[in-house]
Amino acid sequence: MKITVITGTEVQGCTYQLKEAFLSELRQGNEIKEFYLPRDNPHFCRGCKLCFDQHEDKCPHAAHVRPIWNAIVDSDLIVWAYPVYVMRAPGHVKALLDHFGCHWMPHRPDSKMFSKTVAIITQSIGAPNNGAQADVATSMTWLGVPRVKKIGFGLIDGTIWEELKPKRRENFIKKTKAFARSFKNLKPAKMSLVGKTIFAVCRKMQQNQLKKTAKPSADAQYWLDQGWIKAR
Ligand SMILES: Cc1cc2nc3c(=O)[nH]c(=O)nc-3n(C[C@H](O)[C@H](O)[C@H](O)COP(=O)(O)O)c2cc1C
Fold it and tell me: pTM higher than 0.85 for the full model?
């Protein structure tokens, strides 16, 4: 299977150790592509909306964003590993997600996303991980991904991997490896009821939009090209 991994820190610390433990179970026989943030997309969305109104290749950051998006669309499993920053996902993770807004279901979703699986790995010193996980999970759902699995840890002893109690480190590694094994022999996921409902509402929205304007928007044209809506 093809795996894309996006690690939300360049520090080779706790996130890195968990990500490596996860991949150690899946390296054999799988094709893995890795990205690190902010290195591989150091940009915030500028709000120009060229992606929405014209095409994602018009984005001033397309040279960074496009290879990551292409890898995601091409993979069976997408892994997000990142630390919790102030109870949420780090800003550079959100900055990348913002660039994917044009692929959300109300805009131009890629149907290949409708069968993908996502794994989210997070850790904090002790704060709940769910807010940070939701930042990525929400985007994945609106991109059309039906299966999102999560694992999160509280480090407790501090933020330096080598300074954590050895028993605690072992436990994190053991749990992360078991989590990774649950993705072996991965089958394509089926579109969920939530996904189907969002898609149906978006289809109606695009069909209605066509009635209002002489020239279809970039989004409506995409839906027409996919055969998801009918020309007037
Ligand atoms: C800017 C910043 C904000 C953080 N915010 C929190 C937080 O709100 N709650 C928490 O428990 N840990 C917080 N942490 C700790 C991280 O979640 C993480 O445990 C730490 O960065 C170690 O992971 P790393 O080695 O991958 O960087 C924060 C760390 C940083 C650098």
Answer: yes
